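Listing S7. Sequence submitted for prediction.
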Amino acid sequence: VQLQASGGGPVQAGGSLRLSCAVSASGSIFSVNAVGWFRQAPGKERDLVATITREGPTNYADSVKGRFTVSSDNARNTFYLQMNSLKPEDTAVYSCNAKGTRGLLPKRPYDVWGQGTLVTVSS
């Protein structure tokens, strides 16, 4: 299973960006149970930003509530992080993580990370 994250870049404070995380597995049947978005600012630890489950429930870090929205296109196995009202402190490398199963009999769990995408918010 592979994850492809995209959508980062420079933006001014108050602006918006939408990150995408596409999940794929060539030649394999797979399902995605949950996707998490994380970020790591320079010199800091990686923090959880938001999560979404297959059934739809979402969860957000307090620092992004009301500004960020996580969503999914299950048909395309693509997950999004809409980031509005961006602040300089949102500057970080954003990564996605996916958990689910692949195969049929047996189903095997996976837990994979995509490469990061840099978001730079200038004041």
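Caption to Listing S7: primary sequence and predicted structure tokens for the chain studied. The mean pLDDT is 95. The chain has no helices and eleven strands.
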